[in-house]
Amino acid sequence: MNVITNNNIKSTIAMAALHNVIDPEIGLNVADLGLIYKIAFDEAGRKISTTMTLTTQFCPMGESIVDGVTQAMQQTFPEDEIHVDLTFDPPWNYDLISEEGRKFLNR
Amino acid sequence: MLGASLSTDPVKTTSYKVVLPFYAYASIAFFAATLLLVFSAPAFGRHYFHPHVIAITHTMALGWGTMVILGASHQLVPVLIEGKLYSNILAYISFALAAVGIPMLVYAFYTFNMNWVARRGGELVIGAVAVYLINMGISMAKSKTQNVHAVFVFTAGLWLLITTIIGLLLVYNFSIPLFSEDSLHYLSLHAHMGMIGWFLLLIIGVGSRLIPMFLISKYTNAKLLWWIYILINLGLIVFAFMFLYAPPVYCYLLPVAAVAAALLLFGYYCRQAYRKRLRKQVDEQLKISVLSVVMMALPVVLLIIMIIGLWVAGENTRLVLAYGFTVFFGWITAIILGMTFKTLPFIIWNKVYHKKAGLGKTPNPKNLFSNRVFTGMAVVYLTGFILFVTGILLSAVVVLQIAALLLLLAAGLYNFNVLKIILHKPAML
């Protein structure tokens, strides 16, 4: 799934940073896992809103993954206010895993 | 298009503080059970209704199996029902009641004194189970998602409550004649309600969700799981009626066939999940858990031999002992040995690293315990298990003693790794 964004350049930088946030159980990063749905940049208000999901609602590792995304975004864009929103609509499914992610799991 | 239901709150799951006491208690109980096994190995060359055998069985069934499953289910049921655990306080109360009641019961069995210690111990265990069921029931009722896995877990809890109530009545029956027969007569009813109703239903209910999840498998088949649920419960209810109305021995093969069919279907379910997995590499912890699914077959085979033997030549106490041992030290222990290291490292990792995630490279949860010690534990455990079953079947005390020492060593290695995980200090790579 392609990430919905209003700034392709900044979104690419953000996704690169999110490659360092790993789902500890699966061992795959949140970007390739397809957990990131949308990154919206509010240039005037200097706010970045990330909309993401989890592989399952009430995932025991969910809090860590959301914290990881928040902290990675804050580290990459230190001047901006970071918001991370969770949604389960649409719910995550295996088809959201990227080609790179599939190669990693197939090792 | 994204849905409107956004939340800025991180998903709050069950606190590690609720789960850890159950895991720690279970680890100590496993060590205590194997220690008792070393001191009581010769008892396994005699009749199964021996005080030491009953004490060890209850240490394994309640202190080890039930405590670790109660702890894990407080963490996993919210995942199954996609809702929150209703109350942490009820979970603490359930732990406290069981933690006090179990050693009282075990001590009373070991010394074979069915006085107030046994009675109060049994009452506390029933209290623990009732509180657990209330907590699970309200959590499930509040959840919007009702699914087959949750029904398995709740029904298993009900069977555990019935098992513990019957157990307490059997304790009273030693001194106050409540039943027409002595307590030994009802032992198989009590034992099978616990083994099939509690352990088997719960393990299949949770395992059928976790195994595909850990394998990252697309496979789901709720219809098949409902069939498994019906077969197990039907088998158990038919067995209970047969027990009360005492038909010819061969009739018992009917409920055994129902449970065996359920196991075959579950084996098929696991195989399909394995075949449709995205993750090709399967770790050692999951392998030993899958091995335990295969190990379920061993007690079923022994049970069929036992029933045929009982029909033809009368009861064979060695087979009864071997059967019970393969359930508690085989199937149930194998699944816990594997699943502990698929759940506990993640609980501790979450506690230690959730504020550090995304800021740099953190250790993998799998690195929180020693894989070499885990492999050593698995080898020593399997050798000890096979030797002990051989020792029971041959009534060979020396073999039993060597096997008991190996199982004690396996329990020691398990405790080492559990302690290593629990005491893990933060380290950035």
CATH class placement of chain B: Mainly Alpha
The largest sheet of chain B, given as strand count, sense and whether it forms a barrel, is: none
Radius of gyration of chain A equals: 13 Å
Shape field of chain B: globular
CATH homology group of chain A: Fe-S cluster assembly (FSCA)
Estimated share of beta-strand residues of chain B: under 5%
Helix proportion of residues of chain A, in percent? 25-40%
CATH topology of chain A: GMP Synthetase, Chain A, domain 3
Distance between the termini of chain B: 39 Å
Radius of gyration of chain B: 21 Å
Q: Which percent range fits the helix content of chain B? A: over 70%
The helix count of chain A comes to 4
- Show unreliable segments of chain B: none
Contiguous low-pLDDT stretches of chain A (5 residues minimum) are none
Structure write-up:
The complex is a heterodimer of chains A (107) and B (429). Chain A is 35% helix and 20% strand. Chain A has one domain (4-92): Fe-S cluster assembly (FSCA) (GMP Synthetase, Chain A, domain 3). In chain A, strand 2 and strand 3 form a beta hairpin. Chain A is of the alpha/beta class. In chain A, strands 1-2-3-4 form a four-stranded mixed beta sheet. With 429 residues, chain B is an all-alpha fold. Chain B has helices at 16-40, 51-81, 88-110, 116-142, 148-173, 187-215, 222-245, 253-275, 284-295, 297-313, 317-353, 371-394, 397-422. In chain B, helix 2 (51-81) packs antiparallel against helix 3 (88-110) and helix 4 (116-142) packs antiparallel against helix 5. The longest helix of chain B has 37 residues, at 317-353.
Briefly, what is this?
The complex is a heterodimer of chains A (107) and B (429). Chain A starts with a strand and ends with a helix.
